[in-house]
């Protein structure tokens, strides 16, 4: 399975992160350990939600959608 997941920073709740992975829990641990330079400064993070998809292509399309204008609006209304 391939997962699109949404994180929110505990230290700065205005900071949110959307990304694609094959292992949600390992990636969350990676974000919280400081291994990812982009998310290290806003650690710790917590998992808000994730969507599991069988196709990596579909997961990548969902990730791109959630990172653009109408996808932001959708996520703000329904996921955050």
Key attributes of the depicted protein:
single chain; 80 residues; GIY-YIG endonuclease; three-stranded antiparallel sheet
Secondary structure elements and pairings:
Blueprint: E1 2-9, E2 16-21, H1 24-33, H2 37-40, E3 45-53, H3 56-66, H4 69-78
Antiparallel strand pairs: 1-2, 1-3
CATH architecture, by name, is: 3-Layer(aba) Sandwich
In sequence order, what are the helices and strands, one letter per element? EEHHEHH
User: What name is given to the CATH topology?
Assistant: GIY-YIG endonuclease
Q: Which percent range fits the helix content?
A: 40-55%
Uncertain segments of ≥5 residues (pLDDT<50)?
none
- The first-to-last residue Cα distance is 23 Å
Biggest sheet character = 3 strands, antiparallel
Instruction: Estimate the strand proportion.
Output: 25-35%
Strand order of the largest sheet: 2-1-3
Quaternary state of this entry equals single chain
Question: Superfamily at the CATH H level?
Answer: GIY-YIG endonuclease
Mean pLDDT: 93
Name of the CATH first level? Alpha Beta
Q: What Rg is obtained from the alpha carbons, in whole angstroms?
A: 12 Å
Overall SS class: alpha+beta
**Total of domains:** 1
